[in-house]
Design goal:
Number of strands: 20
Number of helices: 15
Helix content: 25-40%
Radius of gyration: 23 Å
Shape: globular
Strand content: 15-25%
Structural class: alpha/beta
Strand order of the largest sheet: 14-15-16-13-12-17-18
Bound molecules: nicotinamide-adenine-dinucleotide
Length: 475
C-alpha cells in the first residue's frame, strides 16, 4: 500500500479525482499538508450508481464470504498500522501513541464486527405453517463521519453495514479525509468494485447525500445540531437513520474512592484525545468529602502532562483538530473568565503556531454555567462539588444529552445503584470509554437515534422480513 501524497476518491473500484480540490491542514503547524478531491454532485451520483450496481451481487454473496472479506480488510489495516498512524497524526493532531490505538482499534473493529451473526427468529412451526423473520440488507448506506476519530468511527459503520450485505458511500470530515481516502484504496484491492465508495468534499456534500434518492439509509456520527439537519433532510425520502451525536457525560466520584489511585484515570477520562471524544467526561462531580484532595491530585498530575505536536516523542496531548473548534473552546474559556470562575490550571492561549490550548480545569463553576451545560469537546474540565446522591443524580441527568457517564467508587453495589439511575446509553463503573464491536452503544435523548455495535447495531443495517409458508398437508 502506497502512502504517498496523491489522494483520490474510490468510486466503483477506480481512483477518481475531484471536480476541484480542497486543502487539508496539519493542526499542529497550520501548514497545508495535502490537497484532496472536492466531489461534484455528478461524482456523488456516480458513487451512488456504483454502490447500487454492486448491491445485488454483494447482498447475495454468502455471509461467510462477506465475513472473510471484512476480516481480510481488518488485517490489511493492521498491516499498514504504522503508515496510517503517521498520516492520522498529521491530519488529526493526536499523538502517535493515540493514533496507533485508533488504527489498531479500526482494524480490530472490522475483524470483531465480522464475527457477528444475523439472527433468524422462528415465529411459528406448526402443522399449518412455518413462519420466520430474517434480516435482509437495506441497500446503499450513506455513511458520514466526524474528525475526532476519523478512521475508527468510519469502521463502526463499514463493518456491520457491509457484513449485513449493504453497499456504501462513505464521506469523511473535510478536516480529516486523508486516512479514509487511503483506506478506500486499500479496500479497493479486497472488496468487489462499488461495494465501498469514498467521496470527499466540502459543506455541500453531506446534504447532497442525505437528500439523495439513491441512498437508502444514512449512518451519521457528528454533532447534535447537524444530526437534526440530517434527520430532517432524510425524512423527504424516508431514509432509515442512525444518528450518533454529541454528549455531556458526567463522571460521579463517590466519597470512598482511593483518591491517589483514580486521579490519573479521571484526568484521562476528560482529556484523552484532547477532550475531543463524544464520550469524554465533560462534567466531573466529586463528593465534598474528597473534593479538595482529588482536586489537588488531578491538578498535580495535569502539570506533568506534555501538550505539543503529536509527531514529537513524549507528546501526550496534541492540538485541537481545527480552527472552528479551537475558536469555540476559546470562547467557552473566555466566558468562564468573564464570569470570574476560578481556574486551577490553564485558561491562557498559547503563542505557539497550531491550535493548541493548554489543559484547563475550572474550580466548581455554577451548575448553569456554559462550561457545565454545553459540550466543550476540548481540554477544559469543570470540577463540581456535590453533597448528596439524589442531588448529584438529578444534576447529572439535567441535560438534553444522554450519551455516556461513569461512576467511581470502591463499594461497587453503591456505584451500580447510582449508575442505573443515569439516563444515558452507556454507563461505566470505575472506567470509561470502553467500547467493543460486540456491544450496543448509542445515545438516549438528543445524543442520538439508534445504536452502533453488537447485534442491535448490526440490525440497524437491515430490514426485517417475515416469510410465512403454509404447509402442504393442510393446503
Ligand atoms: P459535525 O456535525 O460538524 O460534522 C460531522 C460530519 O457531518 C462531517 O463529515 C461533516 O462534513 C458532515 N456534515 C456537516 N453538515 C452536514 C449536513 N448538513 N448534512 C450532512 N452532513 C453534514 O461534527 P464534528 O464537529 O465533525 O464532530 C464533533 C461532534 O461529533 C461532537 O458533538 C461529538 O460529540 C460528536 N461525536 C459523536 C459520537 C458518537 O458516537 N455519538 C462520536 C464522535 C463524535
Amino acid at each position: 500500500m502506497n502512502f504517498n501524497d496523491s489522494y483520490a476518491m474510490t468510486i466503483g473500484g477506480d481512483r477518481v479525482s475531484g471536480g476541484g480540490t480542497f486543502d487539508v491542514v496539519n493542526p499542529a503547524t497550520e501548514v497545508v499538508i495535502a490537497s484532496v478531491p472536492d466531489a461534484t454532485r455528478e461524482q456523488l451520483d456516480a458513487a451512488v450508481t456504483a454502490a447500487r450496481a454492486a448491491f445485488p451481487g454483494w447482498a447475495s454473496t454468502p455471509i461467510a464470504e462477506r465475513r472473510a472479506a471484512l476480516d481480510t480488510l481488518g488485517d490489511a489495516v493492521l498491516a499498514n498500522l504504522d503508515s496510517f498512524k503517521r498520516l492520522l497524526t498529521t491530519e488529526q493532531g493526536k499523538p502517535h501513541a493515540d493514533a496507533a490505538m485508533e488504527v489498531g482499534g479500526a482494524g480490530m473493529w472490522l475483524k470483531g464486527a465480522a464475527t457477528l451473526d444475523l439472527p433468524v427468529t422462528v415465529n411459528e412451526d406448526s402443522a399449518e405453517r412455518y413462519s420466520e423473520t430474517r434480516h435482509v440488507p437495506i441497500g446503499v448506506v450513506g455513511a458520514i463521519a466526524p474528525w475526532n476519530f476519523p478512521l475508527l468511527l468510519a469502521m463502526f459503520k463499514v463493518g456491520p453495514a457491509l457484513l449485513a450485505g449493504n453497499t456504501m458511500v462513505l464521506k469523511p470530515s473535510p478536516f480529516t479525509p486523508l486516512t479514509t481516502l487511503k483506506f478506500g484504496e486499500l479496500a479497493a484491492g479486497i472488496l468487489p468494485p462499488g461495494v465501498l465508495n469514498i467521496v470527499t468534499g466540502g459543506d455541500q456534500l453531506g446534504p447532497w447525500m442525505t437528500e439523495h434518492p439513491g441512498i437508502d439509509k444514512v449512518s451519521f456520527t457528528g454533532s447534535t445540531a447537524t444530526g437534526r439537519r440530517v434527520m430532517q433532510s432524510a425524512s423527504a425520502t424516508l431514509k432509515r437513520v442512525t444518528l450518533e451525536l454529541g454528549g455531556n457525560d458526567p463522571a460521579i466520584v463517590m466519597p470512598d474512592v482511593e483518591v491517589e489511585k483514580v486521579a490519573e484515570e479521571l484526568f484521562w477520562a476528560a482529556f484523552r484525545n484532547n477532550g475531543q471524544i463524544c464520550i469524554a467526561t465533560k462534567r466531573m462531580y466529586v463528593h465534598k468529602d474528597i473534593y479538595e484532595s482529588l482536586k489537588a491530585a488531578i491538578v498535580a498530575y495535569a502539570k506533568t502532562v506534555k501538550v505539543g505536536d503529536g509527531a514529537e516523542q513524549g507528546t501526550q496531548i496534541g492540538p485541537i483538530n481545527n480552527k472552528l473548534q479551537y475558536d469555540r473552546v476559546l470562547e467557552l474559556i473566555q466566558d468562564a473568565r468573564d464570569k470570574g470562575y476560578d481556574f486551577l490550571i490553564g485558561g491562557e492561549k498559547t503563542d505557539m503556531p497550531g491550535y493548541f490550548i493548554p489543559v484547563t480545569i475550572i474550580d466548581n463553576p455554577p451548575e448553569d454555567s456554559r462550561i457545565v451545560q454545553e459540550e466543550q469537546f476540548g481540554p477544559v474540565l469543570p470540577l463540581l462539588k456535590f453533597d448528596d446522591m439524589d442531588e448529584v443524580v438529578a444534576r447529572a441527568n439535567a441535560t438534553d444529552y444522554g450519551l455516556g457517564g461513569s461512576v467511581w467508587g470502591t463499594d461497587e453495589d453503591k456505584a451500580l445503584a447510582i449508575a442505573e439511575r443515569i439516563a444515558s446509553g452507556i454507563v461505566w463503573i470505575n472506567e470509561t470509554q470502553h467500547l467493543t464491536p460486540l456491544a450496543a452503544f448509542g445515545g438516549m435523548k438528543q445524543s442520538g437515534v439508534g445504536v452502533e455495535g453488537g447485534v442491535e447495531g448490526l440490525l440497524e443495517y437491515t430490514n426485517a422480513q417475515t416469510i410465512v409458508r403454509r404447509k402442504k398437508a393442510v393446503a
